[in-house]
Amino acid sequence: MATDNNYSLGPVPMAARKGVLSLTMVMLGLTFFSASMWTGGTLGTSLSFNDFFLAVLLGNLLLGIYTSILGYIGASSGLSTHLLARFSFGAKGSWLPSLILGGTQVGWFGVGVAMFALPVQKATGIDTNILIAVAGLAMTATVYFGIAALMILSAIAVPAIALLGGYSVLEAIDSVGGIEQLQSLSPENPLNFSTALALVVGSFISAGTLTADFVRFGKSPRTAVIVTMVAFFIGNSLMFIFGAAGGAATGQADISEVMMMQGLLIPAVIVLGLNIWTTNDNALYASGLGFSNITGLPSKYLSVANGIIGTLCALWLYNNFVGWLTFLSAAIPPIGGIIIADFIKNRERYKDFANAEFQTVNWAAIAGVAIGIAAGHLLPGVVPLNAVLGGAISFLILDMLNANKQNTSARV
């Protein structure tokens, strides 16, 4: 463990904890992502001006609360999402969330590499395969150095995206007559508000479930909560606003596409590259932690292997796997709900990971994931929230019934 600076299989010691600013940059690097801009562009053309801001702010507030709770648990215990899952799912039962979480992050990494390569190829004419190879290997190389590399990369990327992207959006808005002109626009096919809210919450709830992987490095649970809320409530909201403004003004939601239309090719490539690089490195980092929980190997080597696989499969993943990844992502919110429910119920157990005793498999948690997925798809309301609550509540009920059954059997 002494050489594992990712602390893949144990808690992060207080001596290795990081400051608020560094962690804030890492988490903003996670939430600054093109996919959120695309969703923002969809909402911007499907909602009135006021309804758009209400949906974005309320949705990201809910997302911020959910991820902040997970961040609190991560920082208070020092444990990754996958080690936290051992308490509720069991030692080997935690392999299921690790496989789902780790696998989807590798898939999204490959999609992200293609998301960078394809528009750059269109703008520059450079061969797509060369762009994929260079981008994928560069992103993979940085993740080898763990959280320290994520902090350096994010410290460069976050201000660059905010400043260059902000300038481009303001120019785009000004070109169509200013903010008053955008306020006067009415959607041709208005979106139901609950659907809009579900899109906002669902935009990052899968990656948000991995919040503990990053903010477990926080010096206190309070620090983790502040950092997480800033990233999801402010950072993710900013991406939605960029997407909506760009979409309304130019027809392009991704700020890098807007910049290319404005003739700002080099800044556009920089923004697009940094935007995807930070999120992709966070995804690779988290995937390594997941597979480390399953294999017992150091996560940095697994992250590199995952990056190579994602790079080699990037175009195939982009063309064939996005729908499947979206389906798998629907299984992730119940995992977060179950981790939160178990922490609230058995908080004292989380204070001493080294001496904790785990079940091999807790079938109540496995069933809770299935019920959470069903609740998300079948119950009315906001799909991701239904999945989180469905998983948490069913887990608590099934776990209590299982404990009562075991107590009855012991007395007999």
Automatic annotation (TrEMBL):
Membrane-protein topology: Multi-pass membrane protein
CDD domains the UniProt entry points to: SLC-NCS1sbd_CobB-like
Which residues span the membrane?
A: 20-40, 52-75, 95-118, 130-162, 191-212, 224-246, 258-278, 299-318, 324-344, 356-375, 381-401
Location in the cell: Membrane
Q: Which InterPro entries match?
A: CodB (IPR030191), Pur-cyt_permease (IPR001248)
List the Gene3D superfamilies hit by this protein, alphabetically.
Answer: Hydantoin permease (1.10.4160.10)
What superkingdom heads the lineage? Bacteria
Which Pfam families would you find in this protein's record? Transp_cyt_pur
UniProt keyword annotations, A-Z? Membrane, Transmembrane, Transmembrane helix
PANTHER family reported in the protein's UniProt record: CYTOSINE PERMEASE (PTHR30569:SF0), CYTOSINE TRANSPORTER CODB (PTHR30569)
Similarity comment: Belongs to the purine-cytosine permease (2.A.39) family.
Q: Which NCBIfam families match?
A: PRK11017.1
**Which named protein is this?**
Cytosine permease
